[in-house]
Amino acid sequence: MLLETITGPGDLRKLDEDELEQLAGEIRAFIVQSVSVTGGHLGSNLGVVELTLALHRVFESPKDLLLWDTGHQAYVHKILTGRRERFSKLRQANGLSGYPSRAESPHDWVENSHASTILGYAHGLAMAMDLQHEADRRVVAVIGDGSMTGGMAYEALNNLGHSGRRVLIILNDNGRSYAPTVSRLANGLTRLRLNPSYVKSRDRIQRILRGVPGIGEQLELGMEGMRAASREVLGSGGFFEALGVRYIGPIDGHDIDLLETTLRRSAELDGPILIHVLTQKGRGYKPAEDDDEKCLHDTPVFDPVTGPPPSVPAGYTQAFADAIVAAAGDNLDIVAISAAMVGPVGLIPFQTRHPDRLLDVGIAEQHAVTTAAGMAMAGLRPVVAIYSTFLTRAFDQINLDVGLHGLPVIFAIDRAGITGDDGPSHHGILDMALLSKVPGMTVFAPSSAQEVEVMLTEALSITDGPSAIRYPKGAARQVPPDEVGSGLSARVLQRGDDVCILAVGKMVEAAEEAARVLEQQGVSATVWDVRLVKPLDPLMIADAATHPLVVSVEDGVREGGAGTAIADAVGATAEGRPSPAVVVLGVPDRYIAQAPPAAILATLGLDGPGIAASVIRAVEAAEAVTETH
Question: Which residues does the annotation say bind Mg(2+) (predicted)?
Fold first, then answer.
């Protein structure tokens, strides 16, 4: 196999046209096989095979800086830069990251897994190259897969055009982000990619001109003016050029020879240049090509022969999907908002029933939140469904556009807590610490699937401020009706005298396990399901203060999180009697590497045995202090 002979980008430059075509096929087969075993991002990588080959044949990485936005498009780049043999551990503990990783390779410049940022990086790096007099190094930024719907991309384009920095931008236009891209610009680009007369004429003329002996290249360059006029009429390149960014394209992103020719010519030009490349997400793998929703953007483990089964919401996501559909049937003011993640956050059933009440803003979380604020001002009840890791991108808008105005916007926060395989950028561990600092914010944390509907109903009854319901990835705990809470109250699960464990959301199940372990060691525990991170139930706090030891447990950051508020509240409730010792358990102040969520939580002492061990240590420490006195 040719693929086995590629140990670095330099090996690619020895290959002829037929060998490159063979290699592209082998890379696609390798990616499908690898991802079928580990899970990961599939469709986006199948679409950039030829583009990545051309980039590494034209440019000399890492001397030239190849930057990826978003980083889930970088599997082919990893394969070509000496990491093929590590794909058996893709997204596994101590294995290959699913995104570019500076620790893995000098070919990876940016550990980028959130969209729309790469042009900002590129602008900064290009300025550094200028100031350091390294004019022989090129900065190349690949953006696409929906990233051009994010505001940061346009801010960077504006600055690049103004500064004239020498950056080559590759717009990988596959018409999609996670799902089909939502954007007026995307519609303009799509008109170009689908206009048969334009595309066929362009390709035919390019082939003819390229074949003219001796002067083919000059003739083809001379056609640029005519192509620019056509683009202006059809509504594309003029936008970029108005910002000071030269536009070239659109070109076939699966034609390696054309890609290389275009890249080489563009590399000789000054200033920022955008090459518009048309690719097919999921190319070469029929199950991906046939997936209308997301082209197998990401997949679990699957059979590569048949492809993965259709993705459906599960666990807490399914509970939310059912709850919002039920609520919206009776309340016509409910609208749902997504930032390019309609399927993953469980909004497809809502969209099917109420298409006019579903807004997908693209990869624009800040805009999603402020739009929700506007809706709430006019009397609607917007529900912003979003991953925890992406929610933090819009904290300023949550605080000032929603919170400051006391608007009843509801945030349905999926993938909260430790998420696992996607590593530090995707753990949802900041939401409680941040949201609890927004005045007037109510923060719910369900411990079971059944709590989700109850909490959404309660959130809809709140009209004088925002609320959030945060829930984890994965299977949801199922409980009978008599184990579901209500209103803004916490819920006591069992009584004991020695320690009071206050558990948040997913941690309730671990706290109950810890109580069983402690009982075997002669320690009796009261266990509370906190349910409300903010405001804390005063009855729960008063009860906790009667115990000699209080332990809070959360799957968010320990510093400034729910436990900090619990400790303060318990201390303030003691009123003249000695305050109980309070142990706050949570995620430490560091970036958490990829691994299965259960393994991470166990390592952090946030599983049943870990919580029990922390209680025993605290009890022993208290006894030691008593003995010394």
Answer: 145, 174
Boundary of a domain, candidates 470, 501, 526: 470
> Which of the four pLDDT bands, split at 50, 70 and 90, describes residue 245?
very high
Based on the fold, state whether residues 458 and 498 are members of the same structural domain.
no
Buried b (16+ CB within 10 A) or exposed e, 414-440: bbbbbbbbbbbbbbbbbbbbbbbebeb
Helices (runs of H) and strands (runs of E) counted in the chain: 25, 19
Asked whether residue 298 is marked as a ligand-binding residue, the answer is no
Is residue 478 domain-resident?
no
**pLDDT per residue as tens digits for the range 147-171:** 888 889 999 999 999 999 999 999 9
Read off the pLDDT of each residue in 58-66 and give the average, rounded to a whole number: 97
> 331 a known binding residue?
no
Question: Once rounded to an integer, what is the mean pLDDT over residues 505-519?
Answer: 97
- Is there a binding annotation on residue 572? no
* Two structure tokens written together for 411: 């945030």
**CA angle, 266 as apex, 262 and 270 as ends, to 5°?**
175
The CATH number given to whatever domain includes residue 396 is 3.40.50.970
Domain that holds residue 325: 315-470
Domain identity same for 16 and 162: yes
What span, in angstroms and rounded, lies between the C-alpha atoms of 21 and 137?
A: 28
Residue 391 shares a structural domain with residue 428? yes
229 and 90 inside one domain: yes
Cα 226 from Cα 469, distance rounded (Å): 54
User: Per-residue pLDDT tens for 114-130?
Assistant: 889 999 999 999 999 99
- In 3D space, the residue among 344, 413, 362, 353 whose CA is nearest the CA of residue 383 turns out to be 413
Q: How far apart are CA 91 and CA 42, in angstroms?
A: 13
The verdict on residue 475 lying in a domain is no
Question: Which residue in 298, 262, 265, 294 sits closest to 278, CA to CA?
Answer: 262
Confidence (pTM): 0.88
Is 365 annotated in a binding site? The answer is yes
Residue 192 lies in a domain: yes
- Please give the pLDDT value at position 628: 62
Does 590 share its domain with 512? yes
Dist CA 472 CA 365 (whole Å): 20
Task: Give the number of domains in the chain.
Answer: 3
Residue 306 domain-assigned?
Answer: no
354 carries a ligand binding annotation: no
Residue 560: give its domain's CATH number: 3.40.50.920
531 and 614 belong to one structural domain:
yes
447 annotated binding-site participant: no
Residue 579 marked in a binding site? no
Least confident of 51-65, 294-308, 529-543: 294-308
* 377 & 436 share domain: yes
**460 and 503 together in one domain:** no
Q: According to DSSP H, which parts of 498-581 are helical?
A: 507-520, 538-544, 562-573
Q: 548-607 pLDDT, tens per residue?
A: 999 999 999 999 999 999 999 999 986 667 789 999 999 999 999 999 999 999 999 999
pLDDT band per the 50, 70, 90 thresholds, residue 222: low
